[in-house]
Write a structure and sequence with these properties.
- This protein folds into three domains: 124 residues, D-Maltodextrin-Binding Protein, domain 2 (3-Layer(aba) Sandwich); 80 residues, D-Maltodextrin-Binding Protein, domain 2, CATH 3.40.190; 83 residues, Double Stranded RNA Binding Domain.
- 33% of the residues lie in helices and 24% in strands.
- The N and C termini lie far apart (46 Å).
């Protein structure tokens, strides 16, 4: 770290990851005007998940492929914080690392990309490109006639595949499209139709647990409502030992009265079965509600969870 740099912020180098890192940096500077515009250095990494483009991530190890290199840099002191899409985060962090700062959540819904304005209006037998087993399972549960093919790559790559006609539609996170100013490319899909990935749309900032100076810098950035919603969803996922190999979805929302409502689901990969449940309670009980929902689903969906 040079003398002009107060904080080294680690991130993947994709356009979306850089947009998220920039948001985190800007919020830090706004919360701490004394840092100055040069006080946060963004350090980019190419992760294992970025390198693997020839096969589904589930075949290569699932969750953690987009975080390993960043967490190693945190542990050995090359960076001070790491910015992550929370949907990419394993439920168990490496010893000595914590995430206790969540930025305000963006739109958690999926977005449909292509000529069709809804899943119901897709042509019979339409080809849908996605690398997500969660999306595949829910699409096939809605439309058994659809043909789902694997699709990896960044947002521009996936949009190009649609434009070239290689596939008719794909699904991406609405939050990601909004963060790179491409929201007009997608049509939001209701969670009643496609339930989002756990923590989709949420940005988390990871730090070393024994770094009180960084803890103090991040504290004003933590968004309590997002933290409660993500806590419920990730507690559910942890009970299910969730990974990219099992189609799991969940969304927690907090209404005007402060009640947290969690919807959670596990699916058979081929869309032939779904197990769903809900929980409601106070935001302070978010993790307990999520864990309770996860335990129920684990018992009911034992045959797909293993």
């Amino acid at each position: 770290m040079n003398r002009q740099t107060l904080l080294r912020l680690g991130t993947r180098g994709s356009p979306l990851a850089l947009a998220q890192a920039t948001e985190a940096r800007d919020r830090l500077l706004a919360a701490h005007p004394g840092i100055g515009p040069g006080g946060v250095e963004i350090v980019t990494f190419k992760t294992t998940g970025d390198r693997i483009q020839d096969r589904p991530l589930a075949e290569a190890g699932g969750k953690g492929l987009f975080t390993k290199e960043l967490e190693e840099a945190l542990i050995d002191g090359r960076i001070d914080i790491a910015v992550h899409s929370m949907k990419d985060m394993p439920t168990v962090l490496p010893p000595g690392l914590v995430i206790d700062c969540l930025l305000p959540r963006e739109d958690p819904r999926d977005a449909l990309i292509g000529a069709a304005d809804s899943i119901g209006n897709l042509a019979h037998g339409a080809v849908v490109g996605t690398s997500s087993l969660r999306r595949q399972a829910q699409l096939l549960s809605l439309r058994r006639d659809l043909r789902v093919v694997g699709l990896r790559g960044n947002v521009d790559t996936r949009l190009r595949k649609v434009a070239e006609g290689a596939i008719e539609v794909t699904l991406l996170a609405m939050a990601g499209l909004r963060r790179i100013d491409r929201a007009s490319a997608g049509k939001p899909v209701s969670p009643d139709e496609i339930l989002p990935a756990v923590a989709q749309g949420a940005i988390g900032i990871e730090r070393r647990a024994d770094d009180p100076a960084v803890e103090a810098l991040l504290a004003p950035l933590n968004h309590a409502e997002t933290a409660a919603r993500v806590a419920a969803e990730r507690a559910m996922l942890a009970e299910l030992d969730g990974s990219c190999r099992t189609p799991i979805a969940g969304l927690a929302e907090i209404d005007a009265d402060g009640t947290l409502m969690l919807r959670a689901a596990v699916y058979a990969t081929d869309g032939s079965a779904a197990w769903t449940t809900t929980r409601a309670g106070g935001a302070a009980d978010a993790a307990r509600l999520g864990a309770d929902a996860g335990r129920e689903l684990r018992m009911r969906a034992a045959r797909v969870l293993g």
